[in-house]
């Protein structure tokens, strides 16, 4: 993280990572700050781009989670494929990677039938030459 983020900012970030619904008053009580001070710090962290947003984390029991690796034809720019991929319903994260594949996508959908539809949509993206999908069985460690 940037050098201009202090220990209090780090603690705020950690608390919000644990529970983004935690209100600023509660965070302030734990850290000995006013609600307004916490609000200003969070706004500052958002303005700096340190905090990019707040999200819903789905239960591990929700639906099917998979990782798909894609190869992109050399004549098509990889970022072009990645930009189309992230717009598909169920695709949560997209990474341009090194190695034998060019792109990796994390997919979460309610059913195997939904996963099949997403994979078919991925295969129909111009420039995708190959896919390899693995279903995630269990999360061992949360980062």
Provide a descriptive summary of the structure in words.
This is Lrp/AsnC family transcriptional regulator. One of its GO terms (cellular component) is cytosol. GO terms for molecular function: sequence-specific DNA binding. The chain has 143 residues and is α+β, with helices and mostly antiparallel strands. The chain folds into two domains: 7-47, Orthogonal Bundle (Arc Repressor Mutant, subunit A), CATH 1.10.10; 64-135, Lrp/AsnC effector binding domain/regulation of amino acid metabolism (RAM) domain (Alpha-Beta Plaits, 2-Layer Sandwich), CATH 3.30.70. It has helices at residues 7-18, 24-31, 35-47, 78-85, 112-123, and strands at 64-72, 91-96, 103-109, 128-135. It has a four-stranded antiparallel β-sheet, covered by helices on one side. The longest helix has 13 residues, at 35-47. The model has no long low-confidence stretch (mean pLDDT 90).
Structure, briefly:
The protein is 37% helix and 21% strand. By secondary structure, the chain is of the alpha+beta class.
Computed over alpha carbons, the radius of gyration is 19 Å
Spatial strand arrangement across the major sheet: 2-3-1-4
Number of helices: 5
- In whole angstroms, the N-to-C terminal distance is 16 Å
Task: Provide the CATH superfamily of the largest domain.
Answer: Lrp/AsnC effector binding domain/regulation of amino acid metabolism (RAM) domain
Strand content: 15-25%
What is the residue-mean pLDDT, rounded to a whole number? 90
Question: What would you say the CATH architecture of the largest domain is?
Answer: 2-Layer Sandwich
Order of helices and strands: HHHEHEEHE
CATH topology of the largest domain: Alpha-Beta Plaits
Outline the low-pLDDT stretches: none
- Main sheet: strands, sense, barrel: 4 strands, antiparallel
In the CATH scheme, the class of the largest domain would be: Alpha Beta
Number of domains: 2
How many strand units? Answer: 4
General form: elongated
Q: Decide which structural class fits the backbone.
A: alpha+beta
**How much helicity do the residues have?**
25-40%
GO cellular component, one term: cytosol
Keywords: DNA-binding, Transcription, Transcription regulation
InterPro entries: ArsR-like_HTH (IPR011991), AsnC-type_HTH_dom (IPR000485), Dimeric_a/b-barrel (IPR011008), Tscrpt_reg_AsnC-like (IPR019888), Tscrpt_reg_AsnC/Lrp_C (IPR019887), WH-like_DNA-bd_sf (IPR036388), WH_DNA-bd_sf (IPR036390)
Protein name: Lrp/AsnC family transcriptional regulator
């Amino acid at each position: 993280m940037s050098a201009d983020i202090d220990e209090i900012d780090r603690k705020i970030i950690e608390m919000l990572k644990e529970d983004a619904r935690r209100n600023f008053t509660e965070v302030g009580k734990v850290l000995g700050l006013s609600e307004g001070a916490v609000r200003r710090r969070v706004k500052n962290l958002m303005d700096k781009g340190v905090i990019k947003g707040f999200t819903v984390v789905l239960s591990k029991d929700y639906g099917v989670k998979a990782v798909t690796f894609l190869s992109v034809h050399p004549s098509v720019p990889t970022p072009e494929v990645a930009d189309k991929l992230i717009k598909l319903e169920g695709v949560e994260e997209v990474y341009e990677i090194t190695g034998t594949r060019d792109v990796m996508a994390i997919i979460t959908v309610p059913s195997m039938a939904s996963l099949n539809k997403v994979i078919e949509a991925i295969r129909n993206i111009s420039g995708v030459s190959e896919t390899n999908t693995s279903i995630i069985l269990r999360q061992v460690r949360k980062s």
